[in-house]
Amino acid sequence: MAGNAISNIVSGIKDALSVSGGSVVGIDIGLSSVKVAEVSCDKDKENWVLTKYASVPLPEGSIIEDEIQKEEEIVDAIDRAIKEAGITAKIASIGLAGPNTVARKLQLAGGSEEEIEDQVVWEAEQYLPFEIEQSTVSFHVVGENEGGGVDVIVAAARNDIISSFKNLVEQVNLKVKVVDLGLVAVTNVFELVMEEKIEDISQSWLLIDLGAQKTEFIIYKNGMIAFTKEMNVGGVMITEEIQRQMGVNYDEAEDLKITGDGQGNLPEEILEIIDDVVEAFFSEIKKTIDFYISSTSDESMMGCLVTGGSALIPGIIEGLEALLGVEVSVLNPFDIFGIEIEDLSEEKKKEIQYRGCSVIGLAMRQV
Asked: Is 337 helix (H, G, I), strand (E, B) or coil?
């Protein structure tokens, strides 16, 4: 059993190492859209550039709880996105999220590489919500901790989920060499953008990825992901409630949620629907914050950054600031990344800022 898990780790590392030497396309297959991106940087990793990007919407219900429901439509969306972005790379880095993936920080006794591997496998067997024999486990040793052991970030995903998403991408003649977790990809961008501000490792930061159906809650401290939780709340809950109450279709409800009457004015009934759902979201955030503080005694939070399409929902930023008592801002990759995409409108740039962090983080795996 342990041998199988370690073999999976080694195989994953070999695949990752074989990426070097060519461009890598990041592919984020979300619940509401497919996004693709390519990035580049100089050898000193100082000048980062977003060179290619595209996003193609998915039909409602294409993916439900990690299960592929509309394979042909998703493959078509990937193909369209690749062509729209003008991507010629054949190596892909894809992201996974959902209940069949796990990212967790562990404090281990340390020792040789083999001893750490054994400890990772034993710990993973205790907390994974799925069988370790049916999953791929990978880890990264961050460094020594105050207790004399080592801090390790462990990531795992069910093999059948990995295979199903790889199959989607490989149907458009791409080779998947890196499989990452979405929350890790977003953290890649966070670390780059916040490099100077997170130098004090005693301070913690909250990163929230507000998606369509899920929200990723990430505490970052000591130079690594210290705590994560996936919450089953997202912007689609508002969309569905607008559909139900207003008698409109999904696309019309999405438009009402973000733009209102087209002039930025939201009707009173739309605001009431948003407020009800957002209150439920804030309640979940408060419970998670309270749990984290009670279990770690960490009250050093310096600030909160948000990303994801649902961060555009009116009142989210202000509500989080009132709830958390710290400054809340949008994670903006363009604080670091230059752009080499022709005819990029301000509207498209704003879309990438809010919805593109995960796929940019996946594309960064090339470097």
From this structure: coil
List Cβ neighbours of 290 (8 Å cut-off, separation of 6 or more): none
Contact between 37 and 53 (Cβ < 8 Å): yes
pTM for this structure? 0.85
Burial (0-12, 13-18, 19+ Cβ within 10 Å), 148:
exposed
Return the amino acid letter for 339: I
Strand duo 150-158 + 135-144: pairing: antiparallel
Structure-derived torsion over alpha carbons of residues 117, 122, 127, 133, reported in degrees to the nearest 10: 80
Distance (Å, rounded) from C-alpha 273 to C-alpha 221? 35
Crossing angle for the helix pair 71-85 and 159-170, to the nearest 10 degrees: 50
Mean pLDDT of each 10-residue bin along the chain, 367 residues long: 45 43 85 93 85 93 87 97 95 90 87 90 88 89 83 90 96 94 92 91 92 87 87 82 86 77 71 84 89 89 93 87 94 95 89 95 85
* Pair of tokens at residue 363: 């594309």
The closest alpha carbon to 357, from 242, 240, 186, belongs to 186
User: Which residue do the tokens 């919500």 mark?
Assistant: 129
Asked if 20 contacts 152 with a C-beta cutoff of 8 angstroms, the reply is no
Six-digit token string for 265: 């004015």
Chain-centroid distance, C-alpha 125 = 24
d(CA 217, CA 23): 31
365 close to 24: Cβ distance less than 8 angstroms: yes
* Of 42, 23, 156, 33, nearest in space to 93 by CA: 23
Helices (H), the chain: 2-17, 71-85, 113-127, 159-170, 182-193, 235-246, 250-259, 268-296, 316-324, 346-355, 357-363
Query: With b meaning 16 or more CB within 10 Å and e meaning fewer, what string describes 254-284?
Result: bbbbbeeeeeeebeeebeebbeebbeebbee
3-state class of 20 per DSSP?
coil
Dihedral angle computed from the Cα positions of residues 90, 366, 181 and 235, in that order, rounded to the nearest 10 degrees: -80
Count of positions (residues) in the chain? 367
What tokens were used for 98?
């959902």
- Please report the pLDDT score of residue 92 as a whole number: 96
**What are the Cα distances from residue 84, in Å, to 87, 88, 220, 330, 341?**
8, 11, 35, 27, 12
Residue with tokens 């070999």: 14
